[in-house]
Amino acid sequence: MVEGEAGDERPVVGEDPAVAQALELYRTLWHEDLATPQSAADSEAQALTLFGGGSVGMYPSGSFSLEELGSTYPDLDFGVTPIPGPDGGSSSFAGGDDIAVTSDSEHPDVAWRFLEWAVEADTQQMMSEVGTVPVHADVTLGPYSDRGPEYAVLGEAMVNGRTIRSVQENALFNASTSPWVTMIAQGVFGESPDSVDDAVSEAQDAMANILSRG
Question: Which end of the chain is more exposed for a tag (fewer CB within 10 A), N or C?
Fold first, then answer.
């Protein structure tokens, strides 16, 4: 979606054909009534409930849903798989959350010691026991994955996942009015046959504009 190092990145949504292919797939699901009617206006607040209740068959989500599904819907028979590619392979997003020590911190040494402690294997093991996917690969592919096949899939997704490296990541992707969110809404739910191409082109220009501001 974005290439280059932080501070020198550029958008590539308009250059990667996989983006348009994915939008065309979701557009087909919508226009052939294979998605729930509320999808166009859904904030995802009801997504887990619909999946857990058996109203929808697929629920793209993160690892955080696994524990909630297990506790809220203990009788639900479901599996976990990475997002598949059009010609094989898979894709996963890993990360996006940041932790930093500010330049004006009064206790930078203590802060750095905490960060070092947070990523140690023992600490990551403790975090994994409450459902958090550990960032320490040995724990991710070891004790965490050993909890069951669903956890093993999530562990592989973490190790092989990619993260947007940009200080503008929120403005580009996560914000409700971001070019990414707008592109999906226009491309999937638009009435024009050219909705996908138009949405991708507009997203490319909007992302370039955001990144030009630094």
Answer: C
What backbone phi and psi angles, to 5 degrees, belong to 88? 100, 175
According to DSSP, the β-strands at 90-91 and 83-84 are antiparallel
What predicted TM-score, i.e. pTM, was given to this entire model? 0.79
**Tokens matching residue 207:** 């992302």
Among residues 151, 169, 129, 173, the alpha carbon closest in space to that of 65 is found at 151
SS3 state at 88 = strand
Do residues 150 and 69 lie in contact, with contact meaning Cβ atoms separated by under 8 Å? no
The span from the CA of 153 to the CA of 83, in Å, is 11
Strands (DSSP E) along the chain, which ranges?
2-3, 10-11, 83-84, 90-91
Per-residue pLDDT for the chain (214 aa), expressed as one digit of tens each?
788 877 788 889 888 888 999 999 999 999 999 888 878 877 777 888 889 998 888 888 888 888 889 899 999 999 999 888 878 888 888 876 677 888 999 999 999 999 999 999 999 999 888 878 898 999 999 999 999 999 999 999 998 888 887 888 889 998 989 999 999 999 999 989 899 999 999 999 999 999 988 7
Q: How many residues are present in the chain? A: 214
